[in-house]
């Protein structure tokens, strides 16, 4: 599993998603409830950026239709989304937030 730097930890504001692109994959990095999460930035219901939505209770909401996704699992909490979005492993090294968007073979 290859980890790459997504951003600096000091750049993240609590409950404010930060959009980054890692190896061509759009990712939303979120610090909430004392943890840092990385989730695919594209809603599984509509092709819109999740990082433009709000974060509450470890969920990120799609601003367009209101579906929310669990930052830990990627599972939607309800309609209209029915499919989960990918989540990615995160490591913190110093002030670096490292994310792996590669899948092990």
TrEMBL record:
CDD domains: Rieske_RO_ferredoxin. Pfam families: Rieske (PF00355). InterPro entries: Rieske_2Fe-2S, Rieske_2Fe-2S_sf. PROSITE patterns: RIESKE (PS51296). One of its GO terms (molecular function) is monooxygenase activity. Residues 4-99 form the Rieske domain. Keywords: 2Fe-2S, Iron, Iron-sulfur, Metal-binding. It comes from the Bacteria. This is Rieske [2Fe-2S] domain-containing protein.
């Amino acid at each position: 599993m290859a980890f790459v730097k997504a951003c600096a930890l000091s750049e993240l504001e609590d409950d404010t998603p930060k959009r980054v692109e890692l190896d061509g994959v759009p990712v939303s990095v979120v610090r909430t409830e004392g943890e840092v999460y990385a989730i695919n930035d594209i809603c599984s219901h509509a092709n819109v950026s999740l990082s433009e939505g709000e974060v509450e209770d470890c969920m990120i909401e799609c601003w367009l239709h209101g579906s929310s996704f669990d930052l830990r699992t990627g599972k939607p909490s309800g309609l209209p989304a029915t499919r989960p979005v990918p989540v990615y492993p995160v490591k913190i090294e110093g002030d670096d937030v490292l994310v792996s968007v590669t899948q092990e073979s």
